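Chapter review: from sequence to fold.
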Amino acid sequence: MSWVSLPLDQLADPKPRAFTGGPFGSKLTSKDYVAEGVPVIRGANLTGGRHLREDNFVFVSEQKLREDLFGNVAHRGDIVFTQRGTLGQVSIIPSNSLFEEYVISQSQMKLTVDPSKADSRFVYYWFSARETIEKIISQNSSSGVPHINLTVLRNFKISVPTLREQQHIADILSAYDDLIENNRRRIALLEEAARLLYREWFVHFRFPGHEHVKITDGLPEGWKRLPFGAALTLQRGFDLPVAKRLSGDIPVYGSSGIVGMHNLPKVSIPTVITGRSGSLGEVRYVDDPCWPLNTSLWVKEFKLVSAHFAYFLMKNMDLKQFNGGASVPTLDRKVVHAASINLPSKLLISLFDEQVIMLFAQKKILENQIRKLNDARDILLPRLMNGEIAV
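The token string follows.
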């Protein structure tokens, strides 16, 4: 197998703006966001694996795109990289994406690959390899928020075999990712089933036997209206700089999800984690030992509710409404603790748990399968990328 080392720029499509970064300065700020329009790709959209995560978008208007952001547009098949923040993130906009075009944020860069020179999937896998990610992180040019510039990425060397060999390698690795993505879709369906059950019982009050329960002051008989803090205790996460993280299999959670691994947990009980600073609104049920960072809040004590109930309670609250940060979005746990919630009876919470525990058990099996597939792919990936395994 013959491989050639080339700057990434030489694999870009010759058309204008095929390799570009996000908008500069005031061209795109939070004031430009609208309820619907053209989606903006941010770091949180690059955390779903091979393909772009198409949720939690913000939008800009078509007019804003045409007037100021026409040079920062990405399309299906483009590769998107993180420029500032969590370096090493990379995803492909899938061919069946929800939208035809996207705007990349100030913290992202995008590449349209020349299909006569490279397979975009191969390029994605090259940049998702651990060795490549470590090289990118080593190019950090900032003492504050990690940052690389477009010139660095343009000149980043990538070794490529023939186009046909690239396609074979991408096909092998894609088989693993196809299974992973299928399992993720099944997990999403299980989550949705549990979420709809929660809303049916505890939002719309159509729980088992509701026909025979009297409603008083807007609540079914036996329910209570209490402060959030009476049922749950939120705790700020713990410091753990990247330099102090040791090799291990304990997930480290930041405001947007898992941001790394460590060898020791800080929390060993099932808990619920949400963002405290930076990214707000995402809520995660975690039943494995973990380390919540100080950019997150975690449930330290379940006083009157179960962990499963607490998870859906918090997801249904829209925690973004409690943002108290002037510049950086910030969730004040004291404000959340004071928020009013409707608390059902212990019996009804127990009945709910009996239903969702089965769904979460299936979810756990699928998550374990994903973990094994990820491990197998990650073992195979570097061997394919250095030519050790011929295709």
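Two observations follow directly from the output. The mean pLDDT is 92. The longest strand covers residues 296-302.
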